[in-house]
Amino acid sequence: MHNTIQKIINSHPVITDGAWGTQLQAQGLTQGDCPDAWNLTHPDRVEKVAQSYVDAGSRVILTNTFGANGILLESHGLKDKTREINKTGASISKKAAGNHVAVFGSIGPSGKMLLTGEVTAVQLRHAFAEQATGLVEGGVDAIIVETMADLDEAKLALAAAQDTRLPVFVSMVFDSGKEKDRTLMGVTIEDATSALEDAGADGIGANCGSGIESYIPVTRKLRAATKLPVWIKPNAGLPEIIDGNIRYNISPETFTEHARTIINEGADFIGGCCGTNPEFIRAMTAVQKIT
Ligand SMILES: [Zn+2]
Fold first, then answer.
1. What total number of domains does the chain contain?
2. CATH of the domain at 210
3. Is the pTM of this model over 0.90?
């Protein structure tokens, strides 16, 4: 195991962070804004989100760079700022993290389909490599390729991130099929795990998707399929529209109860995706003490 990961995982389980998008919206980000661009235009507000997770007890926080690949940034007219947005996003999180919290640079999907020829493998590899370079320049400790549905895209991002020589985790969304154990593209947990393990991933996980309860069997299957660290970040239930606002109707306490089961099923890293906030992390850090 990579030294950086070994050090973090020595004290187990590792509580990571929660959602960033909703926290940025609370600070004024509106629909249609490019969240990643805020690293340059509103660094103070981005830092507030990072700091809120550090203060809640996260031992790993991510970076505000989920959509900061050149392919997505191009649609905001910001392609030429790719490296700067990633570098600044990384340094904002590092500043909030101090010496005791690790920063994993977030790389999300390109939003384009390889399968239909919307984008080529060469274009994807190049876009992810540029993003990873910026993240390294900003000082991240590791990279997390997350929210992936297409295994080929995930492998291209993994390979690009591995060129930095930092540890790289890959997390996919298993929310489809009768048992909610495959991605939208039909990739099973077992197929994803064996391909990503062969490709040299340092950790494998699942994030986003449907509610946290579905992560109990997902974690069990991931744990059975790999000896690598398992990374889990569920959503806070399924979103509902109440009075025109998106709401997630699960409390931090209920989320934490399920998180405890997920840890017992073998998750090494646990945090939250859409709908979670620092309150969820604070509730989970209590679990860390009693498991
Ligand atoms: Zn999510």
1. 1
2. 3.20.20.330
3. yes
